[in-house]
């Protein structure tokens, strides 16, 4: 979880550095196409909240939601690892093994 927080804060810092670097560039000396790209990029970046990431500009993800999902997955996996010798988990493991063996015999 700490690594996720570190990576998201790293992304936010990189975004701030990109914006500050682009603001230092003399846009008037660039080609029309480059100017247009930079202006569109700056509008997209300034529209996002610092606690959001985007999926290629199609939609935004709230970082709280992503953190919640990752914590849920990590908790579930660690619980399953701790319960690997529990009778119920052994029963499920054997049931899945029998099911997989049956599928492989059919194909």
TrEMBL record:
Transmembrane segments: 65-83
Alphabetized Pfam families for the sequence: 7tm_7 (PF08395)
Name of the protein this chain belongs to: Uncharacterized protein
GO cellular component terms, semicolon-separated: plasma membrane
Predominant location category: membrane
Membrane topology (UniProt): Multi-pass membrane protein
Keywords: Cell membrane, Membrane, Transmembrane, Transmembrane helix
Places the protein is found: Cell membrane
Keyword Transmembrane helix attributed: yes
GO biological process per UniProt: sensory perception of taste
